[in-house]
UniProtKB/TrEMBL annotation:
Keyword Glycosyltransferase set for record: yes
Keywords: Glycosyltransferase, Oxidoreductase, Signal, Transferase
Organism listed in the record: Ganoderma boninense
Gene that specifies this protein: Q6R3R4
Gene Ontology biological-process entries: mycotoxin biosynthetic process
Name by which UniProt lists this protein: Chitin synthase class VI (EC)
Pathway involvement of the protein, from the record: Mycotoxin biosynthesis
GO molecular function per UniProt: chitin synthase activity; oxidoreductase activity
Length: 206
């Protein structure tokens, strides 16, 4: 092999190596850009707040079996308590974030969705057609859940014809890779406990 060819191949390898390093760094940078900034990044004034509720150590892609359940009925005696169990403890979906001196309150979308499901179950279980505020609430919840499903846009292929399936006999409809719901409930509880502690300390200081 001639010296000229050797130098050319060496230069080519150097260029390829630089290109690979650059692509690798770009991938890392894009990954870091997708990560939410720390809370210290925000001023908590007007719209300068996080867009998403932070979960504590969530697992990635938690598998959930989509199946018919004997729980979460409409008219069963235990239905109200079973549906109430989907709510977060104490706070009903509200969370306090930001500095203790001026905390910002927000409602996590998942908690809002669960609230709407409970409201629609109660409306279906009622003996009369909802009217007035109850009707407006039901219409709001239907619209909110419609928009939420469009936002999530789950493109998972369900086996067979899901609309022709005998749900009494074929009770399992596959699996989904989902958000870590347990981490959500645990994070909401931790935030509530922190907020209660702040309130107690503030009351003692007054």
């Amino acid at each position: 092999m001639s010296r000229t060819l050797s130098l050319f191949l060496l230069a080519l390898l150097g260029v390829v190596n630089i290109w690979i390093d650059h692509a690798f760094v770009q991938d890392i940078r894009k990954g870091l850009e997708k990560r939410p900034p720390p809370f210290s990044h925000y001023t908590w004034i007007e719209d300068d707040v996080p867009e998403r509720f932070p979960l504590s150590s969530p697992r990635a892609h938690v598998h959930m079996s989509i199946e018919e359940s004997v729980h979460y009925a409409i008219h069963a005696p235990e239905a109200p308590l079973e549906w109430l169990y989907t709510a977060t403890a104490h706070d009903m979906g509200n969370t306090h974030l930001g500095p203790p001196q001026r905390p910002r309150i927000g409602v996590v979308a998942l908690a809002h969705q669960q609230h709407c499901l409970r409201a629609l179950r109660a409306a279906l279980a009622a003996d009369e057609v909802p009217k007035g505020d109850a009707l407006h609430h039901a219409e709001h919840c239907l619209s909110f859940l419609r928009e939420s499903t469009l936002c999530a846009a789950d493109a998972t292929l369900e086996p067979g014809d899901a609309f022709a399936r005998n749900f009494t006999q074929e009770r399992v409809g596959g699996e989904r890779a989902c958000m870590d719901a347990e981490a959500f409930y645990a994070s909401m509880l931790r935030r509530w406990e922190e907020w209660v502690e702040v309130r107690e300390q503030t009351a003692k200081a007054v």
